[in-house]
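User: Predict structure, ligand NDP.
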Amino acid sequence: MTKRVVLIGHPVAHSLSGAMQQAAFDALGIDATYEQWDRTTLQLADAVAEVRDDAFLGANITIPHKERVVPLIDRSTEDALATGAVNTLTREGRRLIGHNTDVPGFAAALDKLVGRQKMPRQAVVLGAGGGARAVVFGLIRQGFQRVIVFNRHLHRAEGLVKFFGRSAAHMELKAMPWHESIIESELTKTRVLVNATSIGLAGDQSPLPAGVIPGDLLVLDLIYNRTRFLRDAEAAGSSVLDGETMLLHQGAAAFSLWTGQPAPLDVMAAALADARAHGLRSAEGEPAGDEPAAEAAVAADAGVEPAAQPRADEAEPAPADEEAAATTAG
Ligand code: NDP
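Assistant: Predicted complex:
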């Protein structure tokens, strides 16, 4: 019987994961299909319950459900517990196990970025959503000693720092307000800079003005494109890496969890490149459909100039109602 794997999110229409995972199943002769289920929050519990059936190898969970899915499953593994987010489900009989493969995905990206150099100990992280949680956890686990998190809405960065309080007790993990002068000053004291905001996902925008990024940093953007942020950092002389390595390795880790087999990385990388060449752009971590960035992505796909996102320092205050706040949480 053909086995099923589903990506549950909202929206999921153009996900790159489908191309990558289906190519891997086909290359290894695994009789399985990767489907995309667009499910709202109200539909999430039913969708997750369906995955308990024997027909399923498991699932991917994406925005905006990565945290909401936690109470609907039976057990979370260490990475999922540590980050409070689940992006992959596997089955043990009718029990569902939650994993977070963004964590090994980030570890692979950090390794590639650092290369043969000594692993640095200081990092600045821009953003405090679900992606940033995997990043900060990865940095803590790598032995970083000083990690500063900047976010448009400071309370969210403070929440992230509080969440990691115990595992970061031995080091300096701080949330700081998003002011260019403070970021600029922190960048002179760091070696690694990570963009974990979605600025640059839809339009040609950068979270930082070009002149602020020093020329001797290791710079990672979680976005899987050559963003303006990366172009500016490279022009300044820094070493840069985009989010494709993280995307590929989170997918590879999920594939191995479902199938018990090593992932065919070359096949998956080629499928990703091919899907991107054909205009697909979204993947795990894509903001929900009612987010401005996603709307802009849709507009860009249709050949319409996306509306400019607000600058970080002009942003509206955080949404007050719980549902809206949960929608932006990763
Ligand atoms: P979330 O929606 O959870 O978080 C979005 C983050 O971006 C928040 O920190 C938010 O700040 C910030 N942000 C959005 N718009 C603005 C703006 N106009 N000005 C300032 N800050 C802004 O998303 P994720 O954390 O899941 O994803 C973030 C990015 O990382 C996405 O681009 C996603 O594609 C990418 N990603 C890539 C992965 C990969 O495998 N390569 C894996 C996971 C994510 P605030 O809290 O103030 O709203």
